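<goal> How does this chain fold?
<sample>
Here is the protein in question

***
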Amino acid sequence: MIGKNMSEIEDIALGAFDGMHLGHKALFDRLSEKGAVVIIDKHNANITPGRYRCEYVDRPCFFYDIKDIKELDAKGFLERVKKDFPKLKKIVVGYDFAFGKDRKYSIEDLKKYFDGVIEVVDEVKKDGISVHSRVIREFIKKGDIKRANTLLGHTYKIVGEVVKGQGLGKKKLYPTVNVNPKDFVLPKNGVYATITDVNGFYEPSVTFIGKRVSTDKIFSVESHIIGKDIGEAKGEVTILFFDRIRDNKKFDNLEDLKKQIEKDIDIALEIVKEHII
């Protein structure tokens, strides 16, 4: 576990919290000024992995590594929590919360071994859809970014290190930043309207995901920054996704591909303007 001032925390929201979506926000809204988010990190989060979760809450975040607690029974886990948070008065969980090895313990076990308040938050729905990480993940995989963003309550993003590309874009097409996004679930192959943070500035962009079927057949994630020469990008890049423009498509020549990219740019600019202006 990491974090500060654990001894001052009086209430916690407890869960795995992959996605930090509207359902999770309903838990966070029940926290007091002395509240915190406690994340059981199973290392399989791929909508909002690792410490990126902390960007979406205005409370301290603390992590339990699943490897450290997976052998604990309900009583042992609650003893650990109460020891870590000696002033704890309330635990907030979702209606389907389960914990322990093979998720064998339930909310009733929390109530049995915790002498404070167990507050259970009901299912959250948006546009008639139950808000769950697994649902959002499937929307992302299908390329339905708009619906995923609606359930998230924020714009889906991926983060990755800049990697070397084939160099063709800068010479004959449009220059791109090539990214290796570790730990994040990728949207369905295709072309997306995005904004990309390169060197600390978010810029409108067109992002491609998939095999470069018109050139070297290599899988890539790459963004063209619209209307700006960013030079040589290095380090970490963040891409925020607004909507899907089209499928990946094979072109007979680079001139046809370039014309299509020009159309993609126009569409992306119109979409991005709706969100950032």
Remarks:
- The mean pLDDT is 92.
